[in-house]
Amino acid sequence: MKRKLLSMVVSSALLSVLIFSACNSRNDQPAAAGKYGAFSFSHQLTLPGTPIEIYDGATGDISAWWDHSFSEKPYKMYIEPHPGGGFYEIFDESGDGVLHATVTAAHRGKLLRFVGPLGLAGHAVNMVCTYTFSAAGSDSTLLKLEVHVSGEIESEWPELVKKVWIHFLDERLRNYVCRTGTK
User: Fold this and answer.
1) Is residue 113 a contact partner of residue 92, using CB atoms and an 8 Å limit?
2) Which residues 6+ apart lie within 8 Å of 131 measured at CB?
3) Burial class (CB in 10 A: 0-12, 13-18, 19+), 7
4) Range of 67's domain?
5) Which strands, in side-by-side order, build the sheet including 36-48?
6) Ordered alpha helix ranges (H), 25-149
7) d(CA 99, CA 117)
8) Does residue 131 lie in a domain region?
9) How far apart are CA 41 and CA 54, in angstroms?
10) How far apart are the C-alpha atoms of 53 and 138, rounded to whole Å?
């Protein structure tokens, strides 16, 4: 009885593989473009200011410190810090632009998460970015970034994306916070 059951399971599995192979070998199916995969990384830095001050500097109008855009001189770069809010690049006064990501979680001074292709728009890619904010002493904030990317991934993207994020946070946001004095 066990042998007969095992034989039926093996036969069923083999039949499934043959059907799947036959369906996927049709000439009218397009070839997969690019390489599919995933990567992730995290980064953290300590910034002067309270978690709420740093959160506020990392959201709203970020034009003063976010320096990667699709347009040469964007009218505005903006993150709406509420669930369903957008991470927008507005090209001009008429409102033309692009939605880089959608905010999926927001808790002022504690957490911001947004999902979208960001600068990889036009590719079958999804990027989940999470900022967490926590007090580091009485006058500083530990900002932790987690980035998870999946989809159509080119081999050079993991290192490039990480370098760009470190540039945004360690150079651009840090300089902005120090220059404007968040306190």
Assistant:
1) no
2) 55, 58, 111, 112, 113, 143, 144, 145
3) exposed
4) 33-180
5) 36-48, 140-152, 125-135, 111-116, 97-107, 86-90, 76-79, 60-61
6) 51-58
7) 9
8) yes
9) 21
10) 13
Tokens linked to 145: 């970034």
Residue 19 lies in a domain: no
SS3 142: strand
Report the CATH number that the domain containing residue 151 is assigned in CATH.
Answer: 3.30.530.20
Q: Which residues contact 3 (CB under 8 A, 6 or more apart)?
A: none
Evaluate whether residue 37 is within a structural domain. yes
Between residues 175 and 18, the one the model is more confident about? 175
Q: Is residue 21 part of a domain?
A: no
d(CA 179, CA 102): 28
Domain total in the chain? 1
Is residue 78 within 8 A of residue 88, CB to CB? The reply is yes
Name, in order, each residue with C-beta under 8 angstroms of 114's C-beta and a sequence gap of 6 or more: 79, 87, 101, 102, 103, 104, 128, 129
pLDDT tens figures, 15-67 = 333 334 444 444 444 445 558 999 999 999 999 999 999 999 999 999 999 88
Q: What SS3 state is found at 10?
A: helix
